[in-house]
């Protein structure tokens, strides 16, 4: 599980990965700037720099981390990897600290080109919140058509992302399920301007990679997941 808090990746690893990560860390094979053991050192503000690995993370570690991220400027922090023996308990603690909103989105292909939207100054992918009683699969197709005018056929699940934002003073954790789709009809393609979408474009791999330099970490995560599935 990876949660993007203010576009910064927080990776959560479970017990099965803990031994391997600890062995690699001991052999200096991991590219972390700092490695701490939550049971020995706890989590302090001065540790939030570069790429941080936290071993033996607990629900308390998560609560402390989120508090530090919410209340202090941690601009030098690039990522955090939490290794937890009780991964599910840590996941549940993460979710309990935010209001969870469910959403779905699509990565639509037309031949070898991908559909991207330009919204609020960033390149993005079409997505939106689920309606009451709606499944993620149905919502993903609906949101693609509403935001872009493109009719698409759902193919398969790609991944799930979690990212945070603030709305009316509340901290929101949005869970988005992503699906790969094939374009059926783009003759009515037009941006949904009332959702602040300015442009829509079909992009080949080279243009997509360039667009991702002006996007969000969570969207790059989705694109990377698509590329891994295609190449893998």
TrEMBL record:
GO biological process: AMP biosynthetic process; ATP biosynthetic process
PROSITE patterns referenced in this protein's UniProt entry, alphabetically: NUDIX (PS51462), NUDIX_BOX (PS00893)
GO molecular function: bis(5'-nucleosyl)-tetraphosphatase (asymmetrical) activity
Native organism taxonomy: Bacteria, Pseudomonadati, Bacteroidota, Cytophagia, Cytophagales
Superkingdom of the source species: Bacteria
Protein name per UniProt: ADP-ribose pyrophosphatase YjhB (NUDIX family)
Nudix hydrolase domain span: 99-226
Pfam families given in the database record: NUDIX
Signal peptide range in chain numbering: none
Family recorded in the similarity comment: Belongs to the Nudix hydrolase family.
Family matches, as SUPFAM superfamilies: Nudix (SSF55811)
Keyword terms of this UniProt record: Hydrolase
